[in-house]
Batch of 2 targets.
Target 1
Amino acid sequence: MKLQEYTASAHNFEECMKCTICTAYCPVVPVNPRYPGPKQAGPDGERLRLKDPYFFNQALKYCLNCKRCEVVCPSGVKVADIIQSARMKYGNEQPRLRDRMLASTDFMGSLARPFAPLVNGVTGLGITKTVLDATFAIDRHRTFPKYSGRSFERWLKRRAKEQAKFDKQVAYFHGCYVNYNYPQLGKDFVKVMNALGIGVQLLDKEKCCGVALIANGMYKKATKNAEHNVGALQKAVDAGLTVLTTSSTCTMTMREEYPELLKVDNAGVRDSILLATRYIWQLLESGAATLKFKENYRARIAYHTPCHLERLGWGIFSTELLKMIPGVEFTMLDSNCCGISGTYGFKKENYEASQAIGKPLFDQIKSVNPDFVACDCETCKWQLEMSTGYTVKHPISILAEAIED
Amino acid sequence: MRFDTVIIGGGLSGLTAGISLQEAGRKVAIVSAGQNAMHFFSGNFEDIGPARDRVAALFAAAGVRTNAMDGLQLMPMGSFRPASLTLEDVTVFPDEHAAEKALIVNFTGFHDFYGTFIAEALEKAGATCRIRFVHLPEMEHLRLSPSEMRSVNIARAMDEHWEKVVGDIRILHKDEDLIILPQVFGLRDAAVLDKIRTALPARVAFVGTMPPSVPGIRTQMLLKRRFEVLGGTFLMGDEVTSAALHEGVVSSITTRNLDTARIFADHFILSSGGYFSKGLVTTPTQVIEPLFGLDIAFPENRNDWYDADFFAHQPYMDFGVKTDAELHAIKDGQPIQNLFAIGSVLGNTRKEDFGTAAGMAIRTAFAAADTIKGGNV
Ligand SMILES: Cc1cc2nc3c(=O)[nH]c(=O)nc-3n(C[C@H](O)[C@H](O)[C@H](O)COP(=O)(O)OP(=O)(O)OC[C@H]3O[C@@H](n4cnc5c(N)ncnc54)[C@H](O)[C@@H]3O)c2cc1C
Ligand code: SF4
Ligand code: SF4
């Protein structure tokens, strides 16, 4: 008898046993009284919404989509997926101009980049921040991510020949952040891969993974991007390439959100999308390659696991790599959301909640007092640097500085 | 990936074994599919028996303070249960005559704590009781969505506002010798319990609420942190999906998140819990241990699995994975040389040697860890 087959529900919502464990671990519940919490917003609410969409609650927009509820649920309920799907299906929030701006990471990037010094200067000004705050409700406390003058894509294209010389090749999904805001991470990645004897190629035109579009209710655009990316990824996979990333959120989005939320079939490429840390760790562990570390490298590192990496369950690859570096003194920080959650924390209405969510983490970092913090996520980096004053480095960048040149 | 020992399930049993091995310098990984029975914990480690002092020391090093004292615990439904080791939240009474007069205090709008049950029971034992409610404007926001007036959310508010509640209770208090409060204090730090006890003019008993259990969550967090501080690797929200078993030896496992990256180890411990945690699963005709397909004894006729009287002893609670004297798990009649089964996945199959409940979870964890440390596998 296979009863479950006929009663199986979307995102496992029938499996909920009402234990409220998810609500106990949701970072938004303690700081935002308007948010009903994962159990109520997820499986409980879904029951009502299935009866009558009237029961859809606009407050579901306060969900960070951090997925912590899914990580702790003893019954395997995909709580956050239920919530995000409900927003897609029943929500009629129209993204405001501000949300569109924040969500269009690639568009904003290509627009701002040629004028980078100007844009950085302007967005850094107190007066601009006040205008952004008043006009667009982007909180004035935020420091805008800087735009880089030259895109990573252009940098790597100039080195395409040199990269092609390596026998072994991988493709790199760099994401908007590396391309427009922080090409140095991409350069560090190329340095480490080359040291492992591997050349790096671009995909045939990647687009933004779409995570910020989903968060801001721009589902059509997100689905279009997903379809485009799956095509580009498929080309690389067909050419026998593994596709590496340095962003835990882009990875989680392309592997999990494409099929679960956007209903874009990624079966042909999913297993070939890997975080660079996982790929490198596996290479080193199997003995297929080695890295030579500087003898005098010393660093006291505190590691923060970003929410989406926790959901992927791949934090262990980053931490094992860092522990492998001679001269590293390693501290694991407690599991706690930093509060930024992509574009969420940039919005004026979320600023206070965002800082309150991250507070236990900020406090712990200050008490550990490391040389710097390590973390695989770009938006956590902004949040932690702004809120603690400590520098935050990506594990790949740490590897790059610890290996011999 | 390679570890000395891999533990499947991060509840009380898995964490106790993990900490014990990590303390001895072993390299341990715990894989846990989700949170566990500690989130329903009453604060009383039943049947702890001879392991009491040892586990109290292990907990103390993790920052979990306990009472190692024989007596009775007052339960949420007003009954008493024997106690020998409890979390510091629990007040242990020498006998059922807990008070002459008791003041039972609840929060307005909090439906997970039943003062009337407790009052009825205490009154039967000759006490007089008053039930009173306190109301804080600071908690008004919790009532916006009624489903969130929960123990954990109140506990968060209490971290900040406990002094106001104490002030209110002092006004309510007349001549009672016992003040009963729900267990909604000290989610992250139990220090507030002592502060409340000192600030109130009578003996204080914190009594369990409906889940989630605030003391249980705090204990779980502290034990997990201790395990990680000792260098252990905790894979939260991941699930062991298969195991490579060859000629009575387990060589490696796979997990949902790590898929092709297998985890190898010398020893494996199965602490995947009972039915609640899916360590044991039932079909209409069978009781199974889903990961290894270990041996379980149960009556053929399903009607013999349970007693129609809800409050009677339920036979299905006894079913569990078969083990040999040293807790090696048994499959097809043969012990697996490097796989130990501990905690609720055993059901009550080892009652004679290790007792039941949380005590059994801890005692079997120590026994397996000791065998592994001793090297006589
Ligand atoms: C609701 C409830 C309340 C209880 N209260 C008390 C009490 O107050 N006092 C008392 O003495 N006893 C109590 N007990 C008895 C309880 O069983 C023990 O106290 C003890 O907590 C059990 O611990 P455990 O580690 O064996 O299992 P659990 O706490 O159930 O933990 C098992 C863990 O294994 C994980 N898991 C399962 N399968 C896999 C897999 N394939 N891969 C990875 N992880 C997996 C689960 O997700 C879970 O986290 C209670 C039991 C229940 C069910
Ligand atoms: S943790 Fe899972 S089972 Fe428990 S209430 Fe939340 S969704 Fe339901
Ligand atoms: S995804 Fe995060 S913010 Fe949203 S309900 Fe789950 S835990 Fe809360």
Target 2
Amino acid sequence: MTLLKIENLTKIYIRGAETVKALDSVSFSVNNGEFVAITGPSGSGKTTLLHILGCLDRPTSGEVYIDDKAVGKMNDKELDNIRRLKIGFIFQQFYLLPELNVIENIKLPLLFSGNPKKIGEEYLNEILDTLGILKRKNHKPKELSGGEMQRVAIARALVNKPEFILADEPTANLDSENSIKIFELLKRLVEKGITVIVVTHNNELASLAERRIKLKDGRIIST
Amino acid sequence: MTFREIAFKNLFRHKVRNFLTLLGIITSVTVLYSILSFNKSFINNLNEELNKTGVHFMVVPAGCPHEVASLVLHGAVIPKFLQTDIEDKLKEKLDKQYDVLSPILVFQLPNQEKQRIDLIYGLEMDNVKNLKPWWKVIGKTPQKENEILIGFEIADHDKIKIGDKYKLNNKEYEVSGIIEKTTSKDDAFIYIPLKEAQTILAQKDGITAIGVKLKNAEALNDTIDRLSREIPGIQIVTINQILTSISTLAAGARVLSLSVVAIAILISTIGILNVILMTVFERTQEIGMMRAIGASRAHIFRIIIEESVILSTLGGLIGILLALLLSKGIEKFVKSFMPYVPQGDLVVFDLKLGILCFFFTVFLGLIAGLYPAFRATKISPIEAIKG
Ligand SMILES: Nc1ncnc2c1ncn2[C@@H]1O[C@H](COP(=O)(O)OP(=O)(O)OP(=O)(O)O)[C@@H](O)[C@H]1O
Ligand SMILES: [Mg+2]
């Protein structure tokens, strides 16, 4: 079943007199349960594409359909709800709140969503266990290693039981051993039925995904 | 976990910065509460005290500045005497229509032995209960011409007990009574029989002022008019005028001090605004992240405004508590500036006033947080979290 349908997506940035075409008529679809890696050289539009898929930014033209619903027609409130309940974000910089401990950081999205899916301690412990950070539950971020911090961030992305995960270079700040671990974790999420779309520079890691979309100068050169 | 908890925990990220801001708020609130409470009790106590005084008006020398004339009841030392015949003239004009007619003589007397200046208040001892009905005298009011009454401060300082001797101008007097603490200027005086005071000063009929209570209070205005017309060289100050002019003095001091507090409060409010705005700027990326993972603009607004409300709530609470804790010290300090101080505690716990000051502070915190919170809602998640 199709989860995401992207049609003729174009994004033009205007910088003074100059215009930059970050995305140029990009079209593709992603099915439920797919593991997609988006690769391409720096400046090719990967982050721009991910932001539009994540309902953080709007395209100049074209449309994104999530579960057959056009994102362009949604208001701010509907977009907030999509971000809360359908999408899990993972960032290159982790962005954990330093004063909150691991479990509090992970529960943060529940505060914003109001926890409509009634997620309880049991599920929280399950993801912590899966990610190998159960023992770190009450630690502050500064007491964790980079790999652990990113696993906390993944747990945070999973807490609202999203349909898909968007990750922008989640391993850029990690060594290769930890990077592979993170990709293996993402793979296990896919096995559980979650769709994962991950941006990476690293070809070796990208080959761990089932499918690869290559971008260059805002265009898809292979899917 | 709640928005408040997040805001609260975040305040610990910059302990020193936020603590200093808090200190600013606490100081302003402490001073604000003290001044407001002080003024309220000041007027109340003053009213009460003057109402208890058993005289209707004071006769003082003409040409004495009005404010100073108002203070004679409380032992202001004025460098002028009533003419010697005034007391007789007054008695004649009043024609027995008075209950109390109490001449007093107030002056400063160098004390060689103790290397200081004593404040002497001469009066007819029978009139003590009329002029100062609130006094509690330990021992007894002087009955003989060599007996004196001592204010609390002097007794306390010199460790004087009843029956001790006290030397004034080389003559020994016996302390027959000590006045219990009034916390007013009365505490600093030595009270001696009028005749003795006049002897010491070598002013046989010298009088600073005369306190008068009429038989019929309704005749007050007419009597004052008549006396002023018929006896030259005098000035008559009623208890009401005393009250008004002291209140005016106090109100002037209050306006001045309140404007200083207003500035302090303004500065500490800007202080809150400043630190909260700083955290918003520093946390641009975090706020962007929170937006990305589902926080609405309203959520972000709340997290930020809570921080400034927590700061101002803490500041308000601690400030008022501190004002109560330090009330004795603050009172002493302020009293040293006041020309006339009624007896009793002047910084007292006033629940209504405390609540008012507290909510005022919280309200200011809310105001100070508005702009930073608004700025935070304008942070775009994409700009903040660029990979
Ligand atoms: N806010 C913006 N204003 C103007 N131009 C922008 C903006 N954001 C991105 N661009 C431009 O759009 C193009 C695509 O940028 P994007 O960040 O999507 O690339 P990327 O593939 O993620 O690169 P990298 O691998 O370096 O992260 C680049 O040329 C970039 O300079
Ligand atoms: Mg990028």
